[in-house]
Amino acid sequence: MADTEETQKRLRVLIVAPSFDILGGQSVQAARLADRLREEPSLGIGFLPINPRLPGPLKYLQRIKYVRTIVTSIAYALSLLARVYKYDVIHVFSASYASFVIAPTPAILIGKIYRRKVLLNYHSGEAEDHLRRWRRSAIPTIRLADTVIVPSDYLVRVFAQFGLPAHAIYNLVDTGSLKFRDRSPLRPVFLSNRNFEVHYGVDRVLRAFKIIQERFPEATLEVVGDGSQRRALETLAQELELRNTTFRGQINPNLIGDVYDAADIYLNGSEIDNQPLSILEAFLCGLPIVTTDAGGIPDMVRDRQTAMMVPRGDYVQMAERAIELLNNQSETRQMIELARQECLKYSWAAVRDAWLGSYFGLASAFIREDLRLKTLEE
User: Fold this and answer.
1) Distance of CA 358 to the CA centre of its chain
2) Given this model, what pLDDT does residue 370 score?
3) What is the pLDDT at residue 363?
4) Are 33 and 277 in contact (CB under 8 A)?
5) Residue 22 vs residue 198, higher pLDDT
6) Residue 219 has pLDDT above 50, yes or no
7) Average pLDDT in the 241-263 region?
8) pLDDT > 70: what percent of the chain?
9) What is the pLDDT of residue 3?
10) CB proximity list for 345: less than 8 A, separation 6 or greater
């Protein structure tokens, strides 16, 4: 988004996050949040992608492994240097491990060089392992941020273990693009919508579906996503001799509503997690859910009330709970209704004031600090 004269008259917030060229929870959340914030007359919102596209012939360098990382990182750093000083608050989205070094760290450092207020918005369910293994680099860098916002109470507790104060503002669910569908009667039509990485446990979903299909031969499974485990998962599906199983690849977030609408039951097998958007989206669409108890999921799911929850790795119990949903459909309908009510916590109306309060709280501190520095200089 270009910087305009109109933007300069408001509180200026720069969102630094992945664009949709990197499909995932962060890019979806950043886009949804930016769209909502641009409707606020008191704010001027800019967006700076951590993965900028290079212009002209230089774009071909981004197709070369390793070279891509170097040239994209240089372009990203130059973009930060060129734009950060024009804003009052720098809102930086963050993942973990090497991604933390490549993306949020430069934004935090350049924000502090320009004496801007930095809001670190940390989203990774791998936070505990990241902070423990990268303690010497990650923790001092995080302390440079003026405030840390996380999407779950689970991550608040994780950060507190390392002496890092954090505040929770829940993920934002786009209620406009997702529609509820009554699923009566409930069919054995299953969906998995997680990236194909080891910690998301899609292999557990496949193994659970094998058991389900023995009980319901006509059962179907749509597997949405992509990642490093794609070939291994496709091979596993063949070894398990799964029928009616389709690997759909990555779906554009603007089209994902149709995928939820076509399914009747959502399965999530994650081993490590925070506050998965896919569960919230399934809640909103009326899909009953069977999920593991990984990470922050117990904070967003009440077992046998809003979803079925099983221990991590227990694909046998996952299958049993899915079959139970199909066999006890009156109780399943009650669960769906309670889950829809739970979604209210993740609406824009519920999180708007928290975001505005965070920005203007930082802006007030910025103004006070700026006045103090000017006084000292005089």
Assistant:
1) 19
2) 55
3) 85
4) no
5) 198
6) yes
7) 92
8) 94
9) 47
10) 170
| pLDDT band per the 50, 70, 90 thresholds, residue 177 | confident
Which residues, including other chains, have CB under 8 Å from residue 7's CB and lie 6 or more apart? 44, 45, 46
Which amino acid, residue 62? Q
C-beta neighbour count of 236 within 10 angstroms? 16
Q: Are 195 and 249 in contact (CB under 8 A)?
A: no
Model pLDDT for residues 338-348, shown as the tens digit of each residue: 999 988 899 99
Q: Which of 323, 309, 326, 325 is nearest to 214 (CA)?
A: 323
| Confidence tier at 22 by pLDDT (50, 70, 90) | confident
Give the Å distances, CA to CA, from 14 to 27, 49, 124, 273, 373.
15, 10, 21, 27, 23
Q: Is the per-residue pLDDT at 101 higher than 80?
A: yes
State the residue for tokens 């998301």.
200
C-alpha 123: how far from chain center: 6
Domains and their CATH numbers in the chain? 5-172+347-377 (3.40.50.2000), 189-345 (3.40.50.2000)
| Alpha-carbon torsion angle 30, 28, 1, 88, nearest 10 | 0
Question: Does the pLDDT value for residue 4 go beyond 70?
Answer: no
Structure tokens at 330: 């009156």
Question: What's the rounded Cα separation, in Å, for the pair 100 and 126?
Answer: 12
The pLDDT of residue 17 is 96
